[in-house]
Amino acid sequence: MKKVLIADDEKAGRVLIKEFLEDYPDLVLISEVNNGVDAITEINRFKPDLVFLDIQMPGKTGFEVLNHLEEIPKIIFSTAYDEYALKAFEVHAVDYLLKPYTKERFHMAVERLNAQNDTIGALAKSIFMEEPSYPNRVLVHFNKKLITVKCEEILWIEAYGDYSRIHTSDQVYLSNFGISDLEQKLNSQVFLRVHRSSIINLDKVKELNKYGKSYDVTMENGDVVRVSRGYMDVIKKIML
């Protein structure tokens, strides 16, 4: 069984999807909403496997909804606007249903679900890397799920091969992104690179201690992060 949510501001659009879903007993409708704000709330609440998502909705657009989700479900866009098709596929949506569509076209979209095993990871990567402003959350792996962690909860980040480990006060998460990618994307006024393998959140620093000719940074949870000589000038700039 897969949980399904419909987000569409047109009642007729929601009714049509529900009618077509009757041919798929393994797709169970758990909620329907008519605006972007409620879509964010309900998706984060129910964690559906599949969302039929309109694009032009009150409150938040479909693309804005995606940027506020704790977990990224599979997405089938359902909209009357064809100008967003390219962007939809850039974020690796399962399909793009242009209203009005037929029952046969709907079935084609649903059948693509099984052929899109990597949709979640690709969609998540596109959302994170293409968002022009500083993100409020980062995407990480935890307990075989893809979830998001608020940036304000991150204490420090360490390189882990081609990946990164993200440390919070009570958990360590794995990110698919390398430390240099994260450095470029995160707010440089808050997240400071202090070592080729380490980035710290300046708001989470407990103390700074001199260690030989360098420094150690102690974070709020007691973790100690070494400042390499190559980044000493960066640290000195923030010392009053």
Describe this structure in words.
It is built from 8 helices and 15 strands. The protein is an alpha/beta fold and 240 residues long. It has 2 domains: 2-125, 3-Layer(aba) Sandwich (Rossmann fold); 135-238, Beta Barrel (OB fold (Dihydrolipoamide Acetyltransferase, E2P)), CATH 2.40.50.1020. A 5-stranded parallel β-sheet has the order 2-1-3-4-5, sandwiched between helices. It is elongated and about 70 Å long. The termini are far apart. The model has no long low-confidence stretch (mean pLDDT 86).
In short:
This protein is of the alpha/beta class. The chain is 28% helix and 33% strand. It has 2 domains: 2-125, 3-Layer(aba) Sandwich (Rossmann fold), CATH 3.40.50; 135-238, OB fold (Dihydrolipoamide Acetyltransferase, E2P).
Shape, please?
Answer: elongated
Strand order of the largest sheet: 2-1-3-4-5
Mean pLDDT: 86
Oligomeric assembly:
single chain
Give descriptors for this structure.
240 residues, alpha/beta, Rossmann fold, 5-stranded parallel sheet, 5-stranded antiparallel sheet, 8 helices, 28% helix, 33% strand
